[in-house]
């Protein structure tokens, strides 16, 4: 079991066929995830391709995460909570300035993603819109978006299968409104055997 | 008046303060638009940042289009139709294979964007999710997405103001379902004076 401490991040390789289990150990904690093709980092996770090819805003069990080149990167095998977001960008210094009026330093998923990914040659401008695991963004017919506390409870998890060799980055999200006002860790496991 | 012929594209510079009018001259025709900072092409249009900071899926009059670095790229001054999409990726060869089962060559917004942008040093992998002007993507509370014919009528337009020096690429969209089954041109004007 790997632990991502509150308001931090991690990056690692996940090979084709391996499985990744991302767990909310305490409940009500978001994890932003981005993906890159481990053999060619110009290919990366795309919200636009995923929403297009899956024909839904709400990505969960049996959906695939797709790349900017139109390839499947991961399949979601199981999602015990069932509410994730793929609309909103990772929280960043600009998020805290513009949405929270916080002008001093504040940890952010954007910083935690690009610093974790730097050893792989990935730069801040390369970070795409993340798949925001456990994030509860509600929308109405008028299109208005509301960020509410996650519905995930202690032990909820999402299990992915890699469809290509991947570089994966995960965070324990740093935005107050996205996490019910408190910051908790995220756990993850890499599984080689069939599950 | 500049004309983008059916199933083609164009790219050009738009300087800070200049205005861009994108017109549907016959009605029911989508135009995909992407933006880059003309002085640093690592900065580009971001659907995730725009939906986040504008707090809505439906981007129209008085909203801004934001970059991956959290800066305003354009403001929408006027939108006579009022329905645009910022969820779905530009149609691409993979779109026609996966969504239409067309395996032969088919023109696509993705190809028209990257070939138009090639003279500016922009590569296919750099193309972000486009702002899909006049595109009518409906969504329900269950998240399911439906691409319907555009609601735009002959002469409908959207007027943008550049908030930084930009490289703009526009298409006349090539996907059957997005354009009511027929392909039409798109017109655009660049305006220097106050409008």
Automatic annotation (TrEMBL), chains A, B:
EC identifiers of the protein: 2.1.2.10
Primary enzyme class: transferase
GO molecular function term, any single one: methyltransferase activity
Keyword annotations: Methyltransferase, Transferase
GO biological process, one term: methylation
Domain of life: Bacteria
Pfam families associated with the record: DUF1989 (PF09347)
Domain DUF1989 as annotated: residue spans: 3-167
Protein name: Aminomethyltransferase
């Amino acid at each position: 079991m790997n632990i991502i401490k509150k308001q931090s991040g991690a990056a690692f390789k996940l090979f084709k066929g391996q499985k990744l289990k991302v767990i909310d150990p305490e409940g009500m904690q978001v994890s932003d995830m981005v993906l890159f093709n481990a053999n060619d980092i110009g290919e990366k996770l795309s919200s636009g391709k995923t929403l297009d090819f899956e024909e839904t805003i709400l990505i969960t069990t049996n959906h695939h995460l797709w790349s900017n080149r139109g390839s499947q990167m991961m399949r979601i095998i199981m999602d015990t909570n069932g509410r994730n977001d793929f609309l909103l960008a990772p929280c960043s210094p600009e998020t805290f300035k513009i949405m929270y009026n916080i002008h001093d330093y504040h940890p952010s998923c954007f910083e935690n993603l690009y610093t974790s990914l730097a050893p792989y040659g990935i730069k801040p401008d390369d970070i795409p819109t993340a798949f925001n695991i456990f994030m509860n963004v509600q929308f109405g017919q008028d299109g208005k978006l509301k960020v509410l506390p996650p519905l995930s409870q202690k032990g909820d998890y999402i299990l992915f299968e890699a469809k290509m060799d991947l570089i994966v980055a995960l965070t324990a999200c740093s935005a107050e409104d996205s996490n019910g006002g408190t910051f908790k860790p995220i756990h993850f496991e890499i599984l080689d055997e069939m599950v």
